[in-house]
Amino acid sequence: MEKKCVHKFLMYFSVFLPGMIEATTGCCGFNDNNVTCIKCCNNYHMVENTCKECTVGSWGDNCTNVCPYPFFGDGCTNICGCNQTMCNKEKGCLNLAENVTLEQKTSEQKTYHSSIPFSKKMFIAIGAAVGMSLLALVLLFILLHRKRGVDVLTYIDNHTLQILRHQVNLRGISGRINSLGKFLRTDK
Length: 188
Description:
The protein is of the alpha+beta class. It contains 2 helices and 12 strands; from the N terminus they run αββββββββββββα.
């Protein structure tokens, strides 16, 4: 992953920065009288004494490099969303729904836009919402069921406690009655 990030940075640096220097003419080197271009900038090549932009799928000094995977297209500014064997350096993925386009806002700020169809995005969003709702309902059911179970146990415990107290009271009374009976019998 880190290697990809470094590669992307170097790719953008070498593709965009030199081209911004002389973007209007594409010429980075003139003859002594500053009239005739003798060297084209990166991402340009010489065609009939004029610097022309690289063809789709190529870049670099005199357009000698082809777009490395996962980049494709004009200036190698698009990114394939498929595997390397399916990514064409000029057109991108054979399945166009998997391409991701890179839009350059400024020289420092770049934004990715996915070209996945809206219906697929909507399906994913709805599926996630339904899944989260079901999870919330299951958790609510579990919490309510546990709370009700605690109330029943509390009622049973209170009822049992009342029965036990009643039995203790009865034993206490019967013990007193027995003691009173013994006391009365000893007086005779």
